[in-house]
Write a structure and sequence with these properties.
CATH topology of the largest domain: TIM Barrel
Largest sheet: 8 strands, mixed, barrel
Shape: globular
Structural class: alpha/beta
Number of strands: 13
CATH architecture of the largest domain: Alpha-Beta Barrel
Strand order of the largest sheet: 5-6-8-9-10-11-12-13
Helix content: 25-40%
Distance between the termini: 97 Å
Number of helices: 6
CATH class of the largest domain: Alpha Beta
Strand content: 15-25%
Length: 298
């Protein structure tokens, strides 16, 4: 009997030792991963198959083109960001709306601005009503008169394909066949949980984005999608729209977005001659003049 108890005690000690070893090994793995793989600045995971965004594990989609821009070639000088990799061209630009009030576009052109995206309008995030930007006509006319390539954006709060197409048709009516040098941008942004779009699903948003872009492209203009990291990773099914021109917003000295993009909005506090107050600053990696498709009416 005593021998049987001794055997049970030894077995218990062995099992407890194995369990403790497994627990310690698990902590060791977690520790190694947190130090060697996870970069808390939200840059890419060291592996090719997955990465982290704000502590959220995201499986890399191998069908989406990678972000090929290198951190070391982004350089900030006098409040403006430059990309200086040999063989890669970039252009400096701004995006504006009625919030910038009356812009003196001749001074903007003299200050080296090479392109501008101008807000045409927006849909209210609580009312759902579409509004035209109070300074669109002035900004469009004066920017082009001063030789600055122009595109436009619409702040969307579309809930579905029908509303997205409604927004696109509104834009086309306002343009009435006028020339654009740059794309028309679908600028959908998450506002708040209690906004009319607060609980839109990734499937509905992705479909609405595609419907908007398809309508714009059918009319002869180019389309582009504006997004930030949160919206791209969490609100869109990004693989379904990644083949479009992408305008990334991330207020940082270099982008940490995993996937490819064409325009990088890096500041909302920029200073440009001819604009009172602050303005958004951007780098474009596509020659602004290469977008030009339209010279006549729809």
């Amino acid at each position: 009997m005593a021998s049987e108890k001794k055997k049970k005690r030894y077995l218990f000690i062995i099992l407890a030792s194995v369990f403790l070893a497994l627990v310690l090994a698990s902590f060791a793995v977690i520790s190694v991963n947190s130090v060697s793989c996870y970069d808390r600045s939200n840059r890419l995971f060291s592996g090719e198959k997955y990465f982290y965004y704000n502590g959220q594990l995201i499986i890399r989609d191998p069908d989406i083109r990678d972000n090929l821009y290198k951190q070391e070639y982004f350089r900030m000088k006098d409040g403006r960001l430059y990309y200086e990799e040999e063989g890669v061209s970039s252009w400096f630009g701004i995006d504006v709306s009625g919030y910038q009030d009356w812009i003196r576009w001749s001074r903007v052109a003299q200050d080296g601005v090479q392109f501008a995206f101008i807000r045409l309008g927006n849909r209210g995030y609580s009312s759902g009503i579409i509004y035209k930007d109070s300074k669109f006509e002035y900004n469009y006319t004066e920017a082009r008169r001063n030789g600055i390539p122009v595109g436009l954006y619409f702040f969307s709060q579309a809930l579905n394909d029908e509303e997205a197409v409604e927004e696109a048709d509104y834009i086309l009516r306002q343009l009435n066949g006028r020339v654009l040098d740059l794309p028309i941008v679908f600028d959908w942004e998450y506002v708040a949980a209690d906004a009319r779009t607060g609980d839109i699903t990734p499937e509905a948003l992705t479909s609405a984005c595609d419907a908007f872009c398809r309508r714009i492209e059918e009319s002869g203009y180019s389309a582009m999608v504006y997004t930030n990291l949160y919206t791209a990773y969490n609100r869109y099914n990004f693989s379904e729209i990644s083949d479009k021109y992408i305008w990334l917003a991330q207020f940082n000295d270099y982008p940490t977005f995993r996937y490819y993009f064409d325009v990088f909005q890096y500041s909302c506090t920029g200073k440009v001659h001819g604009i009172d107050g602050e303005v958004d600053l951007n780098i474009m990696f596509v020659d602004p003049k290469s977008f030009l498709k339209r010279t006549g009416s729809v």
